[in-house]
Every structure is written in C-alpha cells, then in structure tokens.
C-alpha cells in the first residue's frame, strides 16, 4: 500500500491476513535538506520514487504485487469518469495542486489492480474504501496501512466482496 502525506509517502509491502506480516517498507520524504535549507521535492519525483521502489521490490523478491492500495491527502478527484480522476486537485500543500497521483502507478503496474481514495475516508470507512473500485470481486490478502505509526489491521474479505458498509 502507499500512504501519501504532506511530509512523506510511505510504501509498505505485506502478506497474510491477520495479522499482516510486513515484508518491506520505505518512506520517501517530500522535502530534502540541501545545505541546511529544507527544499521541496517535485511531486513527480516523489511518486516516481514510490513506483521505482515497488518495482525493485517485485524484481528482487521475484514476485508480482497482487494489488496496490493508495491513500493520499486531498482534496482528490475520485470521479472515475473525470479527466482528472486520480489527481490531487487544489491543495495548500506547496507544489502538489493538480498532481496526477494515480497515473505513475498505472503506468508502472498496468496489470495490477489499484485502489485509490483519500486518507480521511480510509480511516472513516476502513481500508476497503480504498480498494473497492479495483477489487469488487477479487479476494485481497495482506493489505494494511501503517499511518502515523499505527497499524490499522488487515482488509477483511467481506469488505472486498461487498465494499465498505456505508
């Protein structure tokens, strides 16, 4: 899963259902210290780092990711028929307005189901909200979110099959 935040983007690969077993994790910061000055990184570079790390994981572990769930700060365009679906729209976070979040992941993983939602919705309705569009009829095992240092638990199969209870 990928958790996009204003300070960092966290990528976590896990397996198993309950409890999920974290296999690998990496954090990519949105700012870097250059000679004592905190400098904003280009959002495209941060997202490409996430995609590259997940691709490298697949290659080194000789596995294919079964699915990717992405949550991000917003506001996000979540309307699948919109030209800007998968984008962070207008945000006060410097440089992130109109950033295509979903595009780099779709390009890097064209055959992998990808779920996308806001980080706020993820906590309010469970991680099933993130993946329901991509996995309406698929079983998903081992997706969890490490957000602010707290495990939120696995995605239960009923959430995948039926979607979150709204």
Task: Explain this structure.
The chain is built from five helices and eleven strands; from the N terminus they run βββββαβββαβααββα. The chain has 166 residues and is α+β, with helices and mostly antiparallel strands. Strands 3-2-1-6-9 form a five-stranded mixed β-sheet. β1 and β2 form a beta hairpin. The longest helix is centred in the first third of the chain and has 19 residues, at 43-61.
Describe the structure in brief.
With about 170 residues, the chain is α+β, with helices and mostly antiparallel strands.
SSE inventory with pairings:
Blueprint: E1 2-4, E2 8-15, E3 21-29, E4 31-34, E5 37-40, H1 43-61, E6 68-72, E7 87-88, E8 99-100, H2 102-108, E9 114-118, H3 119-125, H4 128-131, E10 146-147, E11 150-151, H5 157-162
Parallel strand pairs: 1-6, 6-9
Antiparallel strand pairs: 1-2, 2-3, 4-5, 7-8, 10-11
